[in-house]
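Problem: given the chain below (718 residues), write out its structure.
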Amino acid sequence: MGKTLVLAEKPSVGREIGRVLSCKRKTNGALIGDKYVVTWALGHLVTLANPESYHERYKTWNMNDLPMLPEKMKLVVIKQTSKQFNVVKNLMNSKDISEIVIATDAGREGELVARWIIEKVRVKKPIKRLWISSQTDKAIKDGFRNLKDGKAYWNLYQSAVARSKADWYVGLNLTRALTCKHNVQLSAGRVQTPTLNMIVHRENEIKKFKPVKFWELKCSANNVEFNWAGHEGNTRLYDNDKRDAILSHIKNSQGEVRSVDEKLKKLPTPYAYDLTTLQIDANNKYGFSAKKTLQMMQQLYERHKVVTYPRTDSKYISKDIVPTLKERLESITSSTYKSFARSLIRSKLNISNRFVDDKKVTDHHAIIPTEQVAFLNDLSSDERKIYDLVVKRFLEVLSQPCEYKEIKVKIAVKNELFGVTYKNIINKGFKAIGANNEDTNEKIIKFKKGDKVKIDKIFYTEGTTKPPSRYTEATLLADMENPKKFVKESKMKETLTNVGGIGTVATRADIIEKLYNTFYVEDKNGKIHPTSKGNQVVELVPEDIKSPMLTAKWEMELTNISKGKVKEPVFINNIKSYTREIVDKVKKDNSIFKHDNVTGEKCPDCGKNLLKVNNKNGEMLVCADRECGYKKMINRITNARCPECHKKMIMVGEGDKKMFICNNCGFKEKLASWNKRKEANQSKMNKKQVNKYMNNMKKEADKPINNAFANSLSKLKF
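Solution.
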């Protein structure tokens, strides 16, 4: 009997499986053992062919050639990873291999990675499936003892194929149609366009917003400030006559305590991180983009091996991880959190169904630290920040809830109610982790029901209603994950919840980056603004492509395919019909795209006008003719700080004319001068450090233990 070939999705996973299966002999792109050979993909090795693979005419973009609806989709090997594909192909065709175990990620896309390779190789050997939710030795061993028949996952594969084909048909045709119609490089897609529409919709809300003045009534008694309870839940007054009438009515009146309610409450521990929640917190706390957070996580996962798989949409772990939790706590070496980790090791861990639930673990479990000890000096500053977030959340999840006493006091001044709420902390629980000993808002409330109280002062504060806030990457990610407010039908809301919103945890960062790179949006002080191009694209695309409902409808159908209730060809035929409809709508649309960023400069390649655009890295010039493709950077944002005001500066110019400019205070300095000054400062810093070190040595030597050494140091001149 021959050996079993195990196909993993990534080298790191393949090596772990190979270690557990005793595959000790290393070869090019694989590990070999007595019973098993483990190899891996590098993400996707095979993909759907580009349009030009179907016909010569598709090499040029022409509206008359649309829609492109090839009857049979072709699979092609990705050039960049063709070497590894050939390794896998040769192993699959080897006479020594009798069966194949698919060990790619346990999910729809993982199934697609493996099955496309098998289909392209045209191998007909028996297929089994490793379906596990974690990569512990125990989980891998148990998984291999309980391998599933590959046929059980055929429908899941069909749903993955259907999703991929649908994105090809709709995305490529709509992108080409818009671009050909307006001779501007435009793109659209079922995730990208609804995301852009959210940003444009928010901007329109801000522009339409009209501020309204309001007042909030307050009174103070016994040095406690009470807030007016309002009428029908509204604590704001928008009519100054009504405001004055209430003030006049209760002026010089005594108060009476109507109620003092005390309740013991618990604030539950937070959920563990999935990727999106981690990206949201990293953006809020450090201003990191979603893409940067994912990059840092990939480094922590692949290079440093101190966190688990990052591209997860689960906030839970499976039961088989529980026995490893104390070992993971022991791996935490951060001085900030080490004492908390040690305390948890000695105590009973909070293992609740908010953290451990096999049914809610999807392709991968939540992001938590691994058992590997973290050498913090090996981490970059940004890696350390992300690692600290993961560690802090892990400790919080395993800690006890925060317990507090909530005290609500209501007083009546004539017939107007005023109230105040306090929280007296009884047990900080998870709130103690990483917190300074700040004021916990503990108050002694000296009020009893029925007491008469003297009102020291009655007054009001004035405010103005604020428009909705512009999106940050954090708030945009949150709405991508939960876009229910953008659809009306309850069934679609439910579907969007069940499918986890629009996009996936693995693709949302790339979708946001694409919006920047296509110049649909720009970043201004951490806020996302749509550009004129972005605003116009939303107007130019067919209406239904802008709504998350399209994704919801697709996901409903794809789920039915995975359950065997709908056949993949039926779904694809509907997608083809839909593609014909949206291309026809673009062809018949009489809208005109207008550039509002044309400069006086001409393209050196074709002579057309150049457009000035902003991206995350700075300003650049691009040719108005999308077929030309000329680009030139005007300035780029750097990490260099202005010596005057410490704001980030931009760099302009080329060659020896490169110059730093601060847009905040106007500071300017040539790059050559900047570098020369920095080198001089670095030299001074080094000398200063030497002096500091030697002075410290002298202080040590001043101690009675070694006066001779102190005398010798005192003679040196620094």
